[in-house]
Amino acid sequence: MIEVNGLQAGYGDLQVLWNISLKVAQGEFIVLLGPNGAGKTTTLRAMSGVIKPMRGEIKFDGKSIVNLPAHKINRLGISYITEDLNLFPKMSVKDNLLVGAYAGYDRKLIKKSLEYAFHLFARLEERQNQLAGTLSGGERKMLAIGRGLMSNPKILMVDEPSLGLSPVMTKATFEALLELNRKGITILLVEQHLAKALEITNRGYIIEHGQIVMEGQTSIILESERVKEIYLGR
Amino acid sequence: MDLSLIWNTILVGLLRGGLYSLIAIGLSILLGVMSIISMVNGELYMIGAYIAYFAYTALGLNPLAAILLAAVGTFMVGVLIERGPFRYMRRRAGEDWYLNSFLLTVGLSFFLRNLAVLWWKPTYRGIRWYWEGTVNVFGSVGISVDRLVALLIAVVSITALQLFLRYTNTGRAIRAVSQDERGAMLAGINIGNIFTLSFAIACMMGGIAGASMLSITPAFPYMGTAPNNYAWLVVMLAGLGNVGGAIVGGLIVGMVEAISFQLIGEGWPAVISAVILIAVLVVKPSGIFGSAVKGVWER
Asked: Given phi > 0 = left and psi -120 to 50 = alpha, else beta, which region is B242?
């Protein structure tokens, strides 16, 4: 579904990605792991159109999306849930969700999407008229994911959803993502927490210093000595 | 002091307040959505008045059609300005955007004013009335139909805009862009189009004000300077980027002006308003309705 080849990207004079190649097939639940500063977020930003790559190719369903602006990439069916969440703090929970469906025309479909978001995250329904800026950390994550779902995306790219969450909330969030994947939504998850992420995904990539250093089935990654050295215990 | 004088003062206050609110709302939108401190909206007020003048006199349109044409015309001028100099500059300004956009509006203000002098001569273009006569409100108080209609137009325009921003998809998108650009573009919103729309709406607000006040304030090239200054006073008083606050602020300033004019006389209203502004800012720097002040570099 999404193919990245030889991606190079960065910020102005600072190049962060030197050679990123990855594939996400439809229906998969892929994890992109790596230490801080490795380039995980930069990769997602380049794939979603937030930053423009310096070199390389990004294809969605066979078509190149590398020069498309972010809003067009969203309309193709790629939803990016950022680490910062980028919510609209002075708008209500419901309004935030409705903006997620901005590009949609089918009123009934939007209503259904809203209902599903409330079903997935009951807390959001309770607080639907509350301003997004007044929500707790976990609730804001739920809202960000809910908003990303409103456009009925084919693929969800989520950047470190467990950050700042309690273990209970992290579990709930991962379970929500699992349910979405079972529904047919492809998921690209970026995480630092090795153990939790590898439990639910089927395949993974490890990124270090802007390059992919390992890829494979999660069971294989778990067994790798190198990975155990580097990551376990962090 | 007799009742009719009080009512008259209140009505004048509401009218001026509505006028300032219209322009101030435009300024708030530009500041909130595009981070532009605009000094050109007074000129849109002027352009609106001129379009209405020519539509009403030369083209012979009926008053409401003339005002509508002024609204559409100033909207289009806004689109041209945003898609032209602003878009071009935004691509290249980077961090200097705040200062550069401000200077650009100052330059445009000069340009439009002098263009008006060139095209339309520095004479006053006024009309006696749109609609003749007076209406009796609250028994014995008479108010000219023109003033009443101008007030109604202001109320309707402001209400329509608020409803648009609150309940429509595009209105939500405008609010979203003003709060988090990245979140908005990741939700599928075309930021460039929203910028153009916001700019055009802000210009249109000024144009409506100028057009509806034509019989009260005749059109001349420099007419926009004072309203621009007052509108900025309203925006600072109410809190930067707060559209709802701009409405209330406009009314407050309008009423203060009307009342101080009655009580003290000419020349003082501006002083009183400025003093109130200083007092409010000393106590609450973010303005009456403003949220915490962030330095421009922290946005």
From this structure: beta
Residues 6+ apart with CB under 8 A from B50: B116, B120, B125, B210, B219
Global confidence as pTM: 0.90
Residue A121: strand, helix, or coil: coil
Reduced 3-state DSSP string for B96-144: HHHHHHHHHHHHHHHHHHHHHHHHHCCCCECCCCCCCCEEEECCCEEEE
Whether the per-residue pLDDT at A162 is higher than 80: the answer is yes
Domain boundaries, chain A: 1-77+199-234
Distance CA B295, CA B276 (A): 23
- State whether residue B296 sits within 8 Å of chain A by CB: no
Would you write out chain B's pLDDT as a tens digit for each of its 299 residues? 577 778 778 888 888 888 889 999 999 999 889 888 999 999 999 999 999 999 999 888 888 999 999 999 999 999 999 999 999 888 887 778 888 899 999 999 999 999 999 999 888 888 877 777 777 766 666 778 888 889 899 999 999 999 999 999 999 999 999 999 999 999 999 999 999 999 999 999 999 999 999 988 899 999 999 899 889 988 888 877 677 888 888 888 888 888 888 787 777 777 888 888 888 888 887 777 776 555 444 43
**Contact (Cβ atoms closer than 8 angstroms) between residue B264 and residue B214:** no
Contact status, residue A144 vs residue A82, Cβ threshold 8 Å: yes
B159 to chain A, any CB pair closer than 8 A? The answer is no
Report the CATH fold assignment for A1-77+199-234. Rossmann fold (3.40.50)
Q: Which chain B residue has the Cα nearest residue A79?
A: B186
Pairing of strands B141-144, B134-137: antiparallel
Question: From the CA of A185, how many Å to the nearest CA of chain B?
Answer: 17
Q: Do residue B182 and residue A50 have CB atoms under 8 angstroms apart? A: yes
Q: Fill in the DSSP letter of residue A53.
A: -
Closest residue in chain B to residue A94, using alpha carbons only: B172
Q: Count CB neighbours of B137 within 10 A.
A: 13
The set of long-range contacts for B50-56, using a CB threshold of 8 Å and a minimum separation of 24, is B50/B116, B50/B120, B50/B125, B50/B210, B50/B219, B51/B207, B51/B211, B52/B210, B52/B211, B52/B212, B52/B214, B52/B219, B53/B125, B53/B126, B53/B127, B53/B214, B53/B218, B53/B219, B56/B127, B56/B130, B56/B214
| Phi/psi-derived region of residue A80, left when phi > 0, alpha when psi is between -120 and 50, beta in every other case | beta
Smallest Cβ–Cβ distance between B190 and the set A71, A98, A99 belongs to: A71
Q: So where are chain B's domains? A: 3-222
What ipTM does the predicted assembly reach?
0.91
CB contacts < 8 A (A, B): 73
